[in-house]
Amino acid sequence: MAGAASEPRLRADARRNSAQIRSAAIGAFQGQGLTVPLEEVAKAAGVSKATIFNRFGGRIGLIEAVIEEVVASELFTVIDRTRTIDDVGERITYYLTALRDLQYRQPAFNDVLLQTYPHSRQLMEICRAGSEANEELVAAARAFGVLRPEFTAGDLHALVLDNALALKHGERPSRDDYDRRTMYVLDGIRGHSSASGG
Q1: Which residues pair with 147 in a beta bridge?
Q2: Cα gap 66→59, rounded to integer Å
Q3: CATH number assigned to the domain comprising residue 190
Q4: CB–CB of 75/106 below 8 Å?
Q5: Which helix (H) or strand (E) holds 159?
Q6: Is 190 helix (H, G, I), strand (E, B) or coil?
Q7: Is residue 103 within 8 Å of residue 166, measured between CB atoms?
Q8: The domain containing residue 126 runs over which residues?
Q9: What is the distance between the alpha carbons of residues 46 and 55, in angstroms, rounded to a whole number?
Q10: What is the DSSP string of 12-56?
Q11: 176-185 — which CB contacts under 8 Å span 24+ positions?
Q12: How many domains does the structure of the chain reveal?
């Protein structure tokens, strides 16, 4: 009887621990990126590091358990919103501005872009979806003369990765400076018709 009574309690404890770990991981990953020490996540969750491994199998399992809430849903919202904008020039402006905003606010997004954990199929799928969106957007924008004719999807990818590296490893700029530089990037890639308002 005692064993039977204790089993539901163990399951309840496990569910509570998992929920606490998920909550702590979301906060830590959003604030510091996916490379935050698991000891910090465990401390915030009020559990041991071993419990994280028991519940999620380690860092990759934990990342995959929460990446939707951490960054994926917001990125996919940006991509979906971009596709609803009729004016291609506005589409490019919105997409790049929103992407750079996400990079500034969510260090975890930069870890995804830099493929910090390439063994995670889920993270690689996010990268694949982002690359497809880049290619689709650049193709449409070049067709309408919104971008410089020599500008490619590879160039857009490189700009985003360069920004990810700068934010992860460099000195973090003020938000005002960052937003001003976003405008410089946009001005630099726009086609002549777009730049002149035509």
Answers
A1: 190
A2: 11
A3: 1.10.357.10
A4: no
A5: helix 153-169
A6: strand
A7: no
A8: 2-195
A9: 14
A10: HHHHHHHHHHHHHHHHHHHHH-TTS-HHHHHHHHTS-HHHHHHHH
A11: 178/100, 178/104, 182/96, 182/97, 182/100, 185/96, 185/100, 185/159
A12: 1
pLDDT digits (tens, 9 = 90+) for 81-115: 999 999 999 999 999 999 999 999 999 999 999 99
Residue identified by tokens 């909550």 is 23
- What is the amino acid identity at position 108? A
**Cα 146 to Cα 144: distance, rounded to the nearest angstrom:** 5
Q: Taking Cα atoms as reference points, which of 120, 116, 142, 136 lies closest to residue 194?
A: 142
Q: What is the mean pLDDT of residues 23-48?
A: 96
Q: Cα-atom radius of gyration of the chain, to the nearest Å?
A: 21
Q: Could you say which DSSP state residue 131 is in? A: H
For residue 188, what are the CA distances in angstroms to 82, 100, 139, 174, 184?
A: 20, 15, 17, 21, 6
Q: What is the pTM of this model?
A: 0.87
CA 8, 13, 15, 16 torsion-angle sign:
positive
Banded pLDDT at 14 (limits 50, 70, 90): confident
DSSP string computed for 76-104: HHHHHHHHH-SSHHHHHHHHHHHHHHHHH
In sequence order, what are the beta bridge partners of 190?
Answer: 147
First vs last Cα of the chain: how many Å apart? 80
- Tens-place pLDDT, residues 65-79: 999 999 999 999 999
